[in-house]
Every structure is written in structure tokens, then in C-alpha cells.
Amino acid sequence: MTIPGSYQAPWQLDDILSESPFLASLGLRLLHLGEDGVRFELEQAQQHLNAEGRVHGGVLASLLDAACGFPARVVANHHDLVRAVTLTLSIEYLAAPRGPLVQARGRIVGGGKKIVFGRGEVLDADGNVVAIGSGSFKRLLLPMTSSLEE
Questions:
Q1: Phi, psi of 123 (to 5 degrees)
Q2: Which domains does the chain have, with CATH numbers?
Q3: Predicted TM-score (pTM) of this structure
């Protein structure tokens, strides 16, 4: 499988997100991606709700996985992204989000060249933190213009 050219600098954030059909199907918007971290935004819709009419925990988990993991794809001093996979993910749900919009943000907090550790949070429309997460991620260290074969 050939890695998309959209992952070469300068990055096209909409194209990067569209390469992940699952995240794109959620309606997620990638607002920022860089060495300082990532920011996503999601407008709550009917398909995001659980039986109680609140945002499903699985949606928040997906936001946190992306927020903690996407920064792992940015390697310092490189302009192209690399692939990364989630090794572990831990989530704490703090409250139900209020308002129509949630934002997730995350950053790398440690690790090495291949294994890194990320932290993230989801905030509601009022700026309240409603969930926090952390995880470990493995960088596949393939430039985005090469093949996925290892």
C-alpha cells in the first residue's frame, strides 16, 4: 500500500484526516497538528449519543486516542509524517459534555524514537475538561511517501 502524498509537508489537514475513514465518519475536524501537539473539534450529532442522550463514551475514547496518538506521527526536525499505532490507552471520564461542540487536544510527553507517550483531554463548549487520557504509541518510522511493507 502506498502512503498518501498528502502526508508530505506542507500538510493538508483535511486530507490527513480523510485517510482515516473511522475518524472522518465521526465528523471530526483536525484543526492543528505540529510538534507542539494536536487539536480536534467535533460537533455533537445524534449518532454520537448513547441511550441517555449524552455523548457516548466510545466517541470520547476515539477523540482521546486521536488526540494522544496523532502527535506521535510528527517527528522533530522532519517535515513528513510517519505512521503510528496505539499500544495502550487509558481514559478517565469526568463529566458529560455540555453544549454542541467538544474539542480534544493532546501532546507527546515523553518516550524515545520509536515508543512515545501521549496525554490528551476533551473539553466541552464551556471549556470544562470532561475526559482525560494517556497512552503509548509506536512510531513505524516509515516516511509517508514509502510503502507500508515491513
A1: -115, 150
A2: 8-143 (3.10.129.10)
A3: 0.86
